[in-house]
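Morning run. Coffee first, then this:
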Amino acid sequence: MTDSSPSLDLVLMRIGLFGGTFNPIHFGHLRAALEVKESFPLDQCYLIPAAIPPHKRNKDIVDADERLEMIQLAIEGYGGFVLSDVEMKRPGPSYTIDTVDIFRRRFGGNNELYWILGLDAFLEIHTWKSYRKLLQTLSFIVTARPGAGEPGRESGRRFLEDYLRSSVSAEYVYADDRDAFVHPSLCAVFVQNITLIDISSSKIRELVQAGKPIHFLLPERVENLIRSRGLYL
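And here it is:
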């Protein structure tokens, strides 16, 4: 369902916020979201497609309504996953801090918010708008896929620690009892290994443009929509 309710009951919940272009959404996105949701565990996981991603070129991004429709088709029937069009309704670039502020106001202070993103994206967080405010507002779950040129769990911790201490704050330390990097005034950063699924949206777009099959890379209903509307050609 599309997220349109203005507020939720103030019940303690663990809410995951999974942003991205989703151009198109595929099984790599979906499996990562599922594994994070089950591991933490999260009560709800919101998939939040960006309208105008600040860090991406826009020429290959299909219309927002079509990306919303693809995500809705992909998560239909899976409890706990919610499509949010909050960034589609806001003019201008889709800055994460603005999205987080909206969800913080909506859910209030009695719920825990987590921003879910890949390791490669997190390693640029010091370039994000108001990144320190972000780290003061909610925890991050950083997903890594060992074997895909990314570090495994142990080496990933050291990799993240080096980055956090050099680019964000030297006060970040690893806490075994929380299995996260903690800070005296900023929120925690968790590392979550996920199953290696070597699929990318860019590869799917290339296959479509080349007239090659994209079966088993994304949900069948999403594939059918792409084919029927001639997307990415």
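The two ends are 28 Å apart (CA to CA). Good start to the day.
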